[in-house]
Amino acid sequence: MTTWMVIIFLIGYLFIALEHPFKINKAASALLTGALLWVLYLYGSPAFVPKVSSTAFNEFITDHPQFSTMPLAQQCIHFVAEYQIIESLGSICSILLFLLGAMTIVEVMDAHGGFNFITSHITTRNKRKLLWMVAFMTFFMSSVLDNLTTAIVMIMLIRKLLDDHRERWLFASIIVIAANSGGAWSPIGDVTTIMLWVNENITTSSIMPSLILPSLTSMLVPALIVSYKLRPGNATIQKSPAQNDKSLPPLPINERAIIFILGIGVLLFVPVFKAITHFPPFMGILLGLGILWVATEIMYNDKPCIKEQRQLRVGKILHRLDGATLLFFLGILLAVNALSFSGILESLSDFLDNKIGNVYAINLIIGIMSAVIDNVPLVAGAMGMYTIVDPDTLSTAANPEYLRFFVQDGIFWQFLAYCSGVGGSILIIGSAAGVVAMALEKINFIWYLKKISLLALAGYSSGAIIYILQNAIFSS
After folding, report:
1. What is the reported pTM?
2. Contact at 8 Å (CB) between 230 and 131?
């Protein structure tokens, strides 16, 4: 059964990675893979459960004496179907609820023209100055927003400023790199950091100071090289086409500014809420969404003159959300959990520990892989292979020097956040930001490979070196 589970997972992974050539949405592939793996795990549970989950299984049988007289195979099936699948869904839903809330808040801000308050302040015509402004704005915006939204906003901006499509490709490439780098150092900046933060592998107070310099370095190195490649001169700033009343957000500018400030505020408040209440992050994001929702309802209720079809209430904006993305996360996390419960990921972690035995090398490999393979399943797989080591386990372990890398905020988890986020920039297909840039600007895969991939790899390697040096200096 183990062999079949690995084969199904690899086939599913292949369809996810080659979504565009196969023309099958990766959410469909992920859901099918996740469901099939759980079915295989269920029927193979008599071989898996006693070896991998013996303690939890014995507790389950003790708490459910009606199963104690059943054959072992039936006991294992009940354990998987009534306990493990529910436990799995509980951890997955905490991530999905957070993403749902965050995506809705960003959509509400965007629908009301919130990002125009940022982009309208770019007035320079010097191309090199413009490149640096775009790079830094993207870097810091993506630490609060997701890198996909940030990439879309900034690419739409450079379309207004640059006529030459080849120069736009250079700018768009830097936007991809800056978006991925900016998302890596913030707990809410990228899906992978959100996953690690929600699961309490990392904390805000540790991840931000530890990764800001490596992440910034990974953006600065390629941006510096590209700035020298740009021909000197000024950008041609195009005048925006005149907007009619129907194309403008319906609320007045002061209320749209309130929505934007409130949206950014509730996103930034989530880590504070978690630190104060110790609730999971999804509670903070749902509270923030509720506040923003009530505020927009009040604004529209005070303006009966605005026609219903033009009102951008949160209920209407919910229909714009990319449900396929949430279903993709659901499917891939279900698949990874099935591999984890079956002990396959534990065997893989043992193999990596024995053959490589260096957390830096393991994460660097994961980062390179994320240029080809979606970083969500990579990080989910790493979280399944390794568990957070608690202080009691560390104090009694035979190899505490190695296990300390896996404590909360340990080097392994921090470096995983960096490598999985930044490594996706090495290829244009390695991140959501890269894929959207490829679609919007029709960037050629081979062009990016020839012109940008080595620069992104140089930035990735430079940031990794900075992180390793940081740890060497401050741990000595």
Report:
1. 0.72
2. yes
